[in-house]
Amino acid sequence: MVGSETRLKGLVVRFEPYGAFLELGGGVRGLIHISELSSQFIQDIKSVVGLGDTLEVGVLSVDRERARVSLTAK
């Protein structure tokens, strides 16, 4: 089931200016956009999370054709 009510744990493995990539297990990676980390404005993602941090996230969408998973921490 996909939705923000479905919670997973993911390990932060990479940063980009627009968000962070999390390893969800089984070789699956997802992106949490910087706007989905908090309900407050975040200018620098590294001020909120660090490499190796574990986050509890919800799945916003899965695009199987493009192998993309969009995540939220809200």
| Topology pattern, helix = H, strand = E | EEEEE
Q: Work out the radius of gyration.
A: 11 Å
CATH superfamily: Nucleic acid-binding proteins
Separation of the first and last Cα atoms: 18 Å
The level 1 CATH classification is Mainly Beta
Number-wise, the strands total 5
Strand content: over 45%
| Helix content range | under 10%
Q: So what's the overall shape?
A: globular
Biggest sheet overview: 5 strands, mixed, barrel
Largest sheet, order of strands side by side?
1-2-3-5-4
Tally of distinct domains: 1
Structural class: mainly beta
Please give the count of helices: 0
Question: Poorly predicted ranges (pLDDT <50, ≥5 residues)?
Answer: none
Write the layout of secondary structure elements.
Elements: E1 3-16, E2 19-25, E3 28-33, E4 54-63, E5 68-72
Parallel strand pairs: 3-5
Antiparallel strand pairs: 1-2, 1-4, 2-3, 4-5
How would you sum up this structure, described in words?
This protein has 74 residues and is mainly β. It has one domain (3-72): Nucleic acid-binding proteins (OB fold (Dihydrolipoamide Acetyltransferase, E2P)). Helices cover 0% and strands 57% of the residues. The protein contains no helices and 5 strands. A hairpin with a 2-residue loop joins strand 2 (19-25) and strand 3 (28-33). The radius of gyration is 11 Å and the shape is globular.
